[in-house]
């Protein structure tokens, strides 16, 4: 045997009652044991990571917010559970309405006040409430009534709204009524702070997101972010789940500046950024406004890779050597624009160029490589770096039945597309792009 114990320490360890026959157990013994088990559960929860496990999707009416039943884990490691769908009027509690610890003082309640106009982060946190009554045993020599106590400590969930600062610009893009939803999301992702990461990653602030910059007295480790919404004083506008919602994210492996480089939260943020864009695209498409929608008016910033349900330019696509086939192109050209399909010319303007046709494997690979890349500006004139976005038709989609809508994938200049020692990614030549008739007006290919 070559191992030996060189020390031990029990400071701060769990205290669990030692159950033996004949022992008298006081309430303090059981309370300490229960608190120790809850602490152990919280440590396991922190090891698993914080985020939404399932459900907890937020929807809205004109003056209400509805949180679907679901489960999550907050940063302190505690489960956040909504056992049923909860619909709430937009009123904020002036004081805490319930305790956040199992053994806490009774709640004193609070008063409600109307929500002021502005942007808010919606969060959920676990709370407890005393319920029912149980009689207490009288002391053997007492003649007084022993009274009663609460029978149960019931676990529940509390929904809170935390005010967000008013935005004027994000990455130099001025906030407007049209792009405010998009810019608020990128503020939450920390787009402005992450620009500094390549400059000196050794000391980069690991608390880089916009939500990290909220007052810790407002956004605590008990709070699980669910969504961001704006209230204009009369109704809910721009409810956006993916600005705040994250999947379960494993804890940072380091506490230094390298956290932002290696932590799982960067991937989770990138995935949320992609889903936020796609959800907004779906809403525009469902509203029948896609054809005339422009990126500059509705999206100050775009994810590095994204997808648009789109129709061929002017209803036609001339077959080129990298198109699926002349027959496929001719069949697809018969499909006219509808309000649910975007026109790439109109949407991108001068912010993207046409690149031809790619296989789905290329689009899928590009998407998975994009989580930690910076967003792209939609205004070509403000982007001194030049055109960074290229959009492509997807071959498998072109070859599918004519009843299936067409779409494009756009992607930034990904690292593996850049030329190093003569190697480049193949895309449509200038001649092919010209033949296809899909080059955005006023852009290069």
Largest sheet: 4 strands, antiparallel
Outline type: elongated
If helices are DSSP runs of H or I spanning 4 or more residues, what is the number of helices?
Answer: 11
Could you say which structural class the secondary elements and strand pairing correspond to? alpha+beta
The order of strands across the largest sheet is 10-9-13-14
Mean pLDDT: 82
Number of strands: 20
Rg, Cα atoms, Å: 28 Å
Distance between the termini: 71 Å
- Work out the oligomeric state of the chains in this entry: single chain
What low-confidence regions span 5 or more consecutive residues with pLDDT below 50?
A: 93-98, 100-111, 315-327, 419-445
* Percentage of residues in DSSP E strands: 15-25%
Helix content: 10-25%
Task: Describe the protein in words.
This protein is α+β, with helices and mostly antiparallel strands and 445 residues long. The chain contains eleven helices and 20 strands. The strands form seven sheets. The chain has a four-stranded antiparallel β-sheet, with no helix packed on it. A four-stranded mixed β-sheet has the order 16-20-19-17. Strands 1-4-5 form a three-stranded antiparallel β-sheet. A hairpin with a 3-residue loop joins strand 2 (58-60) and strand 3 (64-67).
Short descriptors:
11 helices, 20 strands, 445 residues, four-stranded mixed beta sheet
Strands, helices and their partners?
Blueprint: H1 27-48, E1 51-55, E2 58-60, E3 64-67, E4 70-73, E5 79-82, E6 86-89, E7 91-93, E8 112-114, E9 118-135, E10 148-163, E11 169-170, E12 173-174, H2 180-189, H3 191-194, E13 224-231, E14 236-240, H4 259-262, H5 264-286, H6 295-298, E15 301-302, E16 305-309, H7 326-333, H8 344-348, E17 352-358, H9 360-368, E18 376-377, E19 389-394, H10 395-398, E20 407-411, H11 430-436
Parallel strand pairs: 17-19
Antiparallel strand pairs: 1-4, 2-3, 3-6, 4-5, 7-8, 9-10, 9-13, 11-12, 13-14, 15-18, 16-20, 19-20
Helix pairs in contact: 2-5
């Amino acid at each position: 045997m070559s191992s030996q114990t060189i020390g031990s320490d029990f400071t701060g360890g769990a205290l669990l009652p030692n159950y033996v026959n004949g022992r008298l157990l006081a309430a303090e013994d059981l309370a300490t044991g229960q608190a120790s088990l809850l602490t152990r559960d919280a440590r396991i929860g922190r090891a698993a990571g914080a985020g939404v496990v399932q459900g907890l999707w937020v929807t809205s009416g004109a003056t209400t917010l509805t949180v679907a039943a679901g489960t999550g884990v907050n940063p302190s490691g505690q489960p956040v559970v909504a056992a049923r769908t909860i619909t709430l009027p937009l009123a904020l509690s002036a004081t805490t309405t319930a305790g956040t610890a199992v053994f806490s003082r009774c709640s004193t309640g609070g008063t409600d006040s109307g929500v002021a106009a502005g942007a808010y982060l919606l969060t959920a946190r676990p709370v407890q409430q005393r319920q029912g009554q149980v009689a207490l045993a009288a002391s053997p020599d007492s003649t007084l009534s022993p009274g009663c106590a609460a029978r149960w400590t019931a676990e529940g969930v509390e929904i809170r709204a935390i005010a967000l600062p008013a935005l004027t610009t994000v990455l130099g893009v001025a906030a407007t009524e049209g792009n405010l939803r998009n810019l608020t999301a990128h503020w939450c992702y920390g787009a402005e702070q992450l620009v500094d990461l390549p400059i000196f990653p050794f000391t980069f602030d690991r608390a880089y997101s916009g939500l990290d910059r909220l007052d810790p007295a407002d956004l605590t480790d008990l709070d699980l972010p669910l969504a961001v919404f704006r209230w204009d004083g009369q109704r809910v506008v721009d409810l956006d789940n993916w600005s705040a919602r994250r999947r379960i994210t494993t804890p940072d492996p380091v506490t230094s500046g390298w956290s932002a480089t290696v932590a799982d939260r960067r991937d989770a943020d990138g995935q949320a950024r992609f889903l936020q864009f796609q959800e907004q695209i779906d809403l525009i498409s469902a509203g029948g406004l896609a054809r005339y929608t422009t990126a500059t008016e509705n999206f100050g910033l775009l994810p590095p890779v994204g997808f648009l349900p789109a129709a061929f330019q002017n209803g036609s696509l001339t077959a080129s050597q990298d198109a699926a086939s002349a027959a496929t192109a001719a069949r697809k050209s018969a499909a006219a624009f509808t309000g649910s399909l975007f026109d790439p010319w109109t949407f991108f303007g001068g912010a993207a160029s046409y690149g031809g046709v790619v296989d789905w494997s290329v689009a899928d690979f590009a998407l998975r490589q994009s989580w930690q890349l910076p967003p792209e500006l939609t205004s070509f004139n403000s982007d001194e770096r030049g055109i960074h976005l290229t959009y492509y038709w997807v071959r498998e989609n072109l070859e599918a039945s004519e009843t299936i809508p067409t779409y494009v994938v756009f992607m930034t200049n990904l690292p593996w597309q850049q030329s190093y020692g003569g190697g480049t990614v193949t895309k449509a030549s200038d001649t092919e792009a010209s033949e296809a008739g899909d080059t955005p007006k006023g852009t290069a290919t």
